[in-house]
Amino acid sequence: MPETRPDNQRVVITGVGLAAPNGNNLAEFRESLLAGRSGVVPFETRHMGEVLAGVCNCDVLRWQKRKEVRRGTRAGSIAVYCANEAVQDSGLDWGQVPTDRVGVILGITEHGNVETENEIHEISQFDYDTKVWSHHHNPRTVANNPAGEVTLSLKITGPHLTVGAACAAGNAGFIHAVQLLRLGEIDLALAGGVSESIHTFGIFASFQSQGALARHEDPAKASRPFDVNRNGIVVAEGGGVCTLERLPDALARGAKIYGEIIGYAMNSDATDFVLPNRSRQAECMRLALSRAGISAADVDIVSSHATATEQGDIEEAAALREVFGESGQVAINNTKSFIGHAMGAAGALEFLGNLPSFDDRIAHATINLDQPDPQCHLPGLVVNQPRQLERASCILNNSFGMLGINSALIVRRYPEENAG
User: Fold this and answer.
1) How far is residue 17's CA from residue 350's CA, in Å, rounded to a whole number?
2) pTM higher than 0.90
3) Is 82 part of the annotated catalytic residue set?
4) Where are any strands of DSSP class E within 277-389?
5) What are the tens digits of pLDDT across the range 247-268?
6) Which domains does the chain have, with CATH numbers?
């Protein structure tokens, strides 16, 4: 059983908003994951022509005016969309919410690359005359932009920040929000992660230079974590934002509760710029389990980070075997096989894609696993078809990133006694 915390230190999820390449809300996203429907498509990018990417098609004008979209950023628009959808889903009477007690905490991998590339391209058409440079460039490129655009949209006067944590950022957004709620700094959080990465050619070019950019004649089969024929990362955009509240506040207003965040951890490899370290990843998972007061045997689903890079997949698989053993008791899946790598949004979307398992007791599959790599042997891996589970009461979500940053987030069904 998890360690006992005072109720005012227990943090629950009460609303979900998301934009994924294969779904514009949780129901659509979940339906796609259970149906094996990919969101990877051909995508034209500057200087490189056609690449493969996970592209979102959410209607940003649902929550923004055209002028706001033009003035802001793609990451900001995705954040605004997801945050407003989360608030609506939460059932909060927003007009009665003290917005000075609301915090916006969003994970990002990078920010500003898109706008800087666009401005440099624009002035190159005018002999690099800087008078052409947009006066909107600075507010567009400051790192807090996506979270700041949410505060403008929802008139939030509490704190806002983005957490730069490479591809561990989605988890980091949730973790920092939980900490602020437990400290009493805020009473409500809009937390998660966002990414606009597909709109910068630089990220594609850099992965291509590494030999780590995925190619496939069928875009839907390009993202192939753990498969012996994987050939790299599919870059994706997207966002996932949740409303988080302390348990007594959620219960007092009769809120729908998706789950309770009971444990988390972040650590660093301190070994390489890009190559992961299985030992540090295993330590991160164990620390999260310890903080949650549970054992590996209590976890029903592990959402893996695997990006379809050779060494990354191998190292994580080894770390998972070290923590969860060879019994196959825990179901392990991968959401990137459907949508690609959504960078700052990856952890949030991958966690949210598994959240409905608490209700339907199904672990969605890892698709495109035609020939599993023997070096990525995982007895509990859910391959190509969803798996019905006897129990679905606890999910561990892995997200790891460059410069050796690791994160693990653990969420329990609420109330636990109805877990099946």
Assistant:
1) 13
2) yes
3) no
4) 301-303, 331-333, 362-363, 387-388
5) 999 999 999 999 999 999 999 9
6) 11-252 (3.40.47.10), 264-418 (3.40.47.10)
